[in-house]
Amino acid sequence: MELRTIKKISEMEKIQTTKTENIRVLLEMYFNGDSTLQDEETLRNYFSRNDIDPEFKQYSPLFNYFSQEKGAMDTHTKDTHTKVKHIFTKKMFFSSFSLSAAAALAIFTFILWPDQQKGVEMMIGGERINNEQLAISKTDEQLKKISSMMGIVDQSTSSLKKLSNVEKSLSIISKK
Amino acid sequence: MKKVILILLAAVCPLLANAQSKQISEIFDKYEKKKHVESIVVTPSLLGFMLGGEDKEAKDLMSKIKEIRILNVPTNAIENGVPLRQILKDELDKLIIKEQFARAVKVNDGDELLEVYISQNDKGALLFLASSTAEFAVISIFGKIDKEVINSVMNGSLKLK
Question: How many CA atoms does the CB half-sphere of A175 hold within 13 Å?
Answer without folding.
Answer: 6
